[in-house]
Amino acid sequence: MRFCLATTSFPVLATLMLLSAPPLLAQDGSRLTSDTNPAPPTNVRAVDSPNDHGHAITVTWDPSLDDGRGQKNILAYKILRSPGMKGPLPVDSAGPAHPDVRLFASAVYGAAAWRFIPGEWDTIGQAPSGQSSYVNSGGKFRDGDDFLPDNNDFQYRVVAVTATGSRAASDPSAPVQAHGQIFHVDKILHIGLPVALFTVLVLMFISIAKSGKALYIRPLAGISAVDEAIGRATEMNRPILYVLGLGAADDIATIASLTILSRVAKKVAEHRTELLVPCYDGVVMTIAQETVRQSYLDAGRPEDYKQDIVYFVTQEQFAYVAAVSGTMLRRQTATNLYLGMFFAESLVLAETGSVAGSIQIAGTDQVTQIPFFVVACDYALIGEELYAASAYLGREPKLLGALKAQDWAKAAFLTALVVGVVGAALQWDSIVAMFRMNLR
To answer: Residue 145's domain spans which residues?
Structure first.
C-alpha cells in the first residue's frame, strides 16, 4: 500500500517542482520562456560606419516579429556591446588576425589561427520600436570618456524589450572593427568639386601672371599710401618705423608682413631713408634681417645695409611696447607701419604714434584689434587685406595668381548664395537639394 502511494505521488511532486522553478535566464538576463517573452530581433549585422573618422560602427537588425503587435508589443531595443580578444584555434578554423598577433602565435602556438572570445556585455544605447539601426559613434581621443577604439574587435546584440519588462535577445553579430576612411564620398559635390575648381583657377591665374600679362587688383588706400609715407619720411629726414607685431615666424600674418617689409625696405634703400625694425621674436628677427639685407641688395645699395636696422627688443609684451613707444618719441619717426599680429598693445602703439605726429598705416587679421587701428591710424588694412597687400606690393606671380583666384571664388560663392536663397524662398526643391550638405 505504501509503495502504491509513493508511486502515485511522484509525478505530482515532479510537476509541482517544475512549475515552481524560476524561469531560465539568458546570459544578458533576458527570459527564455516563450509564453511571456516577445520574439527576438534577428539577423544582427555590425559594420564599420562609412565616411567617418574611424570611431563608429553601424548596427542593423531585423525587427522582432512582435514589434507593433498586441500585448507583446515592443517598447524599445537595447543595444549591447562586447569587446573581445583573439584566442588560438586549430589551423583549419583560423580567422583573421593582426600581423603582430600572427607573429606571436607563430612563436608561441606554432600557428596563426585565432578566434573571437567575447567579454562582458554592456548596454551602450537604445533605439525606439520600429527602428532597425543604431550608430555606435564614439570620440577619437583616447583620453575622452566616449572614446571608441579603432582596429579593435567588437560584437553586438540587440534585446527587444516590452512595456511589461519582458525581453528577448538576439544572437551576437559577427566581430567587427572600426576603421577611418581617407575619402568622404558624400562630400564630393560640396567640398571636392569646389576645391578642384579653385585649384584650377589658382594655377590658371599664376600662369597668366608669369606670362607678364597685367592682372587687375582692386587698389587699397593703405597700400597706395605706402610710397607717399616713405617719400614724406625722406623729405623730413626722419626714420621709418616698421613693427612686425607679436606673431611667430609660422603665423600667416607675420609671413605676409615680412613680404611687405621686403617691398618697403627696397623702397627705403632707393631713397636712402633710415629704417627701424624692432622685433619681438628672435626667429622673426633673423628672418627679417635676411629679408632687409636682400632688399638692399636688390635696390643696388648693399653698402647701406646695417645689421642693427633689424634688432631684438624683448619677448615681454608690454616691455616691448614701452621700448617701441620710447623709440617713436625719441626719434620722432615720420612713418609708422604696424603690420602683423597685434593684441592688447595695438592702441598703445597707435596713440603714441599719433602723439609723435607720424603717418600711421596698420594692418592685422586679429578681429578684436582692427577697431583700434581704424580709429587711431591714418590707414588700416582690415583682415585679409593684409594678405592682399603682400601680393599687391610684392607682385610675385604665385601671390597674384592666388589673390585673383580668391576674388573669383568669392564671386562664385556670392552667386551661389543668392541662388540658394532664391531657391529656398520659391521652394525649388531641386535647388535646395543641391545645397543640402552632410555635416557628419
So the answer is: 25-169
Q: What is the domain-level CATH number for residue 383?
A: 3.40.50
Taking alpha carbons only, the member of 271, 319, 265, 315 closest to residue 288 is 265
Count up the domains in the chain and report the number. 2
The 10s digit of each residue's pLDDT in 334-392 is 999 999 999 999 999 999 999 999 999 999 999 999 999 999 999 999 888 888 887 77
For residues 131 and 29, state if they share a domain: yes
Residue 35: count other Cβ atoms within 10 Å of its Cβ: 7
Phi-psi region of 51 (alpha: psi -120 to 50; beta: other; left: phi over 0): left
Burial class (CB in 10 A: 0-12, 13-18, 19+), 430: exposed
Phi, psi of 320 (to 5 degrees): -65, -45
Q: What is the DSSP letter of 437?
A: -
What is the reported pLDDT for 394? 67
What are the φ and ψ backbone dihedral angles of 47, each rounded to 5 degrees? -135, 155
- Rounded Cα gap, residues 42 and 55, in angstroms: 25
What are the cell numbers at 405?
583666384
Pairing of strands 359-364, 379-382: parallel
Read off the pTM: 0.60
Q: At a CB cut-off of 8 Å and minimum separation 6, what does 330 contact? A: none
CATH number of the domain at 125, please: 2.60.40.10
Residue 176 DSSP label = B
Give the pLDDT band of residue 77 (cuts 50, 70, 90): very high
In a domain, 368, yes or no: yes
- Report yes or no on 361 lying in a domain: yes
Residue type (1 letter), 326: G
